[in-house]
Amino acid sequence: MGNRPSKSGSGEEPAKTTLFEKEPSGITYRIPALIYLSHCHTFLAFAEKRSSTADHDAKRLVMRRGTLKEDGSVQWSSSQELTTACLPDRRTMNPCPVYEKHSKTLFLFFICVWRNITEKRQIMTGKNKTRLCCVSSSDDGKTWSQTTDLTESVIGEAISKWATFAVGPGHGVQLENGRLIIPAYAYYVPYRCCRVPIPRTVYPRALSIYSEDFGQTWRIGKMLQKKSGECEMAEIIDHEGRSHLYCNARQSGRYRCEALSENSGVYFDKPHIARELVEQRSGCQGSVIGFPAPEFVPNDDTESKACSTSILSPDTQTWLLFMHPTNKCRRKDMGVYLNRSPLHSSGWDKPMIVHKGPSGYSDLAYNGDKDQFACLLECEKEKEHEQIVFMLFSLNDVKQAGSKKEKKMR
Predict the structure, then answer these.
(1) Stretch 273-281: mean pLDDT, rounded?
(2) What is the pLDDT of residue 54?
(3) Which of 15, 156, 165, 265 could form an SS bridge with 208, CB 3.0 to 4.6 Å?
């Protein structure tokens, strides 16, 4: 099974390759995560295998390997269950991979939840039934270690203030200084009455789980001081070489939540609403990724003047892509947004629609070898949970889609 990138400027949706599809028995695949390993030209696609679409019916994590060919196509292996990524009597959820380049170790974070206890029940009772877990691989995902339960060593006593928590879902990131970042969120319990959380006071808060020693030990950062749930993070390098960790988080409301950290995820300053990124009423997970801003050499005076504007992002060496359903009311019409000035909240272009119709969770990856992007997304014609597909597209595809929309608005 292969997949080729879309033709730049065609105006058509990128070609789709179905990696996971709902089975006649009712088995469903949800919650995609994607990572590209440049040293072996390989994509790893992860998902949850469930007995139904419901969160409490999650079972195990599954994975497929995609080998990038010289002609730009991707050849996919068959699906395999990650049998070591589990704990007894618990369901495995929220895959979140990150690659540590110094030790050449691939870490896969996830949560294990007690039997069929729902997130809602944990929030209502204030009794956490979730464990923070990880497996690792030293052969690029061909084999995996046994599960390590990190709950006590990483979260520790803070767990007494959490109703529940999760990682990602989606990919983590390694910063230029070597720090590993796993995006996460927790339902913080500020007040209790008779050991039960006071209603309407328990809200999700995004935070990072990070390692300063290449994955040997992990710590938790401080929570965002604003309602924020499922999140992903990306490193932004400005033209002075300084690192800024960007967080893009789900929230129930009309818009996404954004925040920046100037200390590599220990805490995030001044979280704010991103009014160019719509959110459905109950919210939906979204994906974000950073990539090197393309070099620009002005050819004439006009372009020289343009080079000084924010459109060409003079303040950063990094641009961002964000992926999320674009419809204001429902999870549909999956779009990819470009930000050429990622240190400014108003830098998002109009989105390129990559799937017209029902769309859900997604994850982005950047392939620097081919200077192209890849994504996994939940989608289908009638319901977003019917399949998880893989797509390839270029930066030109996104830029041209945004410029066409701007011309139509004039």
Answers:
(1) 93
(2) 93
(3) 265
